Amino acid sequence: MTQLRGSSGRPGVRQTVAVTEVIVDVAGWTGMALLIGAYALVTAGRLAGPSLRFQLMNLFGGALLMVNSAYYGAWPSAALNLVWVVIGTVGLVRAGVKGRAAALPEVGPQG
């Protein structure tokens, strides 16, 4: 356990915060930043929706927020982010399949 000075309203009072809780909080804020950043970049036209970067930002952002939500027992939010992760995974798989298909040489009729 790590001792951090808290803002309990009483000067000099210490509150104990578990290192795990700090890590989960950082994960939640990072996930939020990734999701909002991805949405802002697509909205601004600086990033394409089907791009690898967009899909990865959504996948990792959703996963980090899912961990944070589950840790704090916010199950509706955790479920939403689980769906977000599944959608991001499907997007990555589809992009990978399309990328492999595009990389294959075209074979024309033999004549």
Automatic annotation (TrEMBL):
UniProt keyword annotation of Manganese present: no
UniProt domain CBU-0592-like: residue ranges: 24-95
Domain of life, source organism: Bacteria
TM helices/strands, residue ranges: 22-42, 78-97
Pfam families assigned: CBU_0592
Keywords: Membrane, Transmembrane, Transmembrane helix
UniProt cross-references to NCBIfam families, sorted A to Z: CBU_0592_membra
Protein name: CBU-0592-like domain-containing protein
